[in-house]
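Board notes, transcribed. Complex of a protein with fe (ii) ion.
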Amino acid sequence: MQERRDFLKTSLVASAGLVAATVLPASASQESKASIFAYTKEHQGRWEGKAGSHAPVVTIEGNKVTVETKHGMSEAHYIVKHSVLDANGNVLGEQVFFPRDAKAISTYEIEGKYTELYAMSFCNIHDLWVTKFSK
Ligand SMILES: [Fe+2]
């Protein structure tokens, strides 16, 4: 019985290692590790060629941060949500969209200085995209 448990344990560990190796080479940078969870302009993954219409575009005027996804909006295919997070994953702002909205554009008042902020945009077909920025 102990041998069977050891075999199962070894198999699970080996399987997990295989999946991790397939998804992420050991030499992957911290930046590319983030791309496991979201696509970026630099790491478009299975949605290669879609960055222009999915990677959020960020503009900053003082404390006003504007996030836009240059994506069409229709019942079948639209941007569901924007979020802005700090480097610790704290949500500083978010906005939900509906297919009837003309554009996927949102604005946030964010006070203070940040070296690392993340604008997230979720498409109902093409998954989650992120743009890193600072202000
Ligand atoms: Fe899309």
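Residues 79 and 123 are 4 Å apart (CA to CA). The mean pLDDT is 82.
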